[in-house]
Give the backbone structure.
Amino acid sequence: MARRLVVKNKTLMVEGEPNHSLYVIVDGSFRLSKVLEDGRRQVTGFLFRGDFVGVRSTDASAYTAEALEDSSVCFFPHRYLDEIAIDAPGVKDRLIARGQTEYHKAQDHIVLLGKKTAEERVISFIELIGKTIGVDDDGRRTVPLPMPRQDIADYLGLRLETLSRTLAALKQDGRILELARHHVVIEI
Amino acid sequence: MARRLVVKNKTLMVEGEPNHSLYVIVDGSFRLSKVLEDGRRQVTGFLFRGDFVGVRSTDASAYTAEALEDSSVCFFPHRYLDEIAIDAPGVKDRLIARGQTEYHKAQDHIVLLGKKTAEERVISFIELIGKTIGVDDDGRRTVPLPMPRQDIADYLGLRLETLSRTLAALKQDGRILELARHHVVIEI
DNA sequence: CGATCCTTTGACGGAAATCAATAGGTGTGG
DNA sequence: CCACACCTATTGATTTCCGTCAAAGGATCG
């Protein structure tokens, strides 16, 4: 149950390299990404306080996890986890459940990428992040965007420029009340 | 460990409805899909012999699983599964591992949808299916396509017409040796 | 305060979507 | 077995949304 600080842009795990710990985000945020041989990068998810990564021990991680800002995590080497699980069988059930949650998030992401327009993707993204780390106040929700535009674009399967234009258009017709580099404000 | 036959187009589980059994495909194939409110459908995966579905008991399934052809499955109600797991702790580890595999497949799908061109998607799809159920013979691999074109298009995030044109183009320049409704042949 | 990075905006082009018609399979019943 | 209907797939013409290329505007940091 050790604690670790991860400074901005440092990795928790790297695609293709072994990882034998389960991490729980205590504070901050992370980006999960995969890259194709030619360098094209797909961001597959973002992690915030309370999220898990490294649910299973592996010799080749499926993705890279990098800190979007200075962050802090708890980590549990899997071999200790196995020992704990002997006395507390519920632990494994929790891991199965967590795995399912991740899988369902991935499925929603698939629907977003496969079927939605640029505008729908951007709105879905803001709502998704807003639900997780949004701050509500008087009918308005402030949604922090700790990641750069390029990360959002790479998550949404859009080009940076298209994302920027789409955000501007949403601001224009009032669906985004406030638009700034590191946050947007929407109506609830 | 009961057995069940599922005729073509019948569902094993339905998005939004409860499911309390784990299924293992014994024979045949299934399509997993989700639909948006307006009816747009995203195929999130295909299942073949040996694949699992329903790894976790739920009151609202995340997707629909339908038979692409007359198929046969084994099923295990989760409450029996829990009993079994008491004596055989390895069972839960297997489920965790299986969940991870599914998650990784979903991530590859995300990369496909987020970053690849129509041609790359079609090639990736043929290779993916080929690896799973392809039949090799003398440097050639016959890849069965038990699903209709519309399902493939909905998996790849393309329109039916675009898929058809892309397949025709691949046939044209020899990257597909043989192209038929229910199979393609490629070089290994 | 300058340098660098990140983001926005503009002009243009292209890949895939859309609209539309045709062709090919499959199953049924006469 | 053939003829018809129906469903699935292909091909063609055109449009559109998003990508690409290019430049300028803003933030951030030493």
